[in-house]
Design a protein that fits this description.
By secondary structure, this protein is mostly helical. It is 67% helix and 3% strand.
Amino acid sequence: MEAMVERYRKPTRILHWVHAGAFTVLFLTGLILFVPGLGVLAQDSWTRILHRAAAVVFIVAPLIYIPMNWKATVRGIKDAFTWGPEDLGWLQAAPSYYFLADEKAMPPQGHMNTGQKMWWLMAIVFGLLFVATGIIMWLFKATLPGAAFLWAVFVHDVSFIAAGNMFFVHVYLSVAHPLMRPLSQGAWASMSRGKVPVEYVKSHHAKWYDEEARGKEIATIGNRR
């Protein structure tokens, strides 16, 4: 049997999929306001109701997860805001790695590579902006000065465009990119079953493997999450 490494524990995976589902609904019900001809779908406000229901899930899910998984939360936030020389190396190697599928070009990466940290950082920043501006637009539309409300709409829309584009990149690099094949060994496996083969970790997250796996049993790697 192939040796495996645990990358994400079950609570983290559940939060990921609940949040991804809520974001997808939010994205689709928000997208119709940007695409000419789709405005008819917003008639009778059913998409607004669906948008707000998904927003509640988007907000509540982390509020349930965080106090129950405090250490994992702190570590995840720290990962998103911790940058070093290996991140510069990732940026230099990224064109060869992603466009030419040259795995040897990429320097050893930690638990999150630089691309994943970019996505996670954007998810935190734009997620907070979504929540703040969304609450303003939902609950304070009638009481806010017009200019303040329009600024909330503007920030919400910019966040939508930035996070939406990065979401598609994230999905492509996690599922469709050649280096993520087969799906049973890469990023998809880490978020679907929580474990990936040791050889995958050595080739894609060698720094994390060396720092946390050396001298330890394989089953204990990644239990921090």
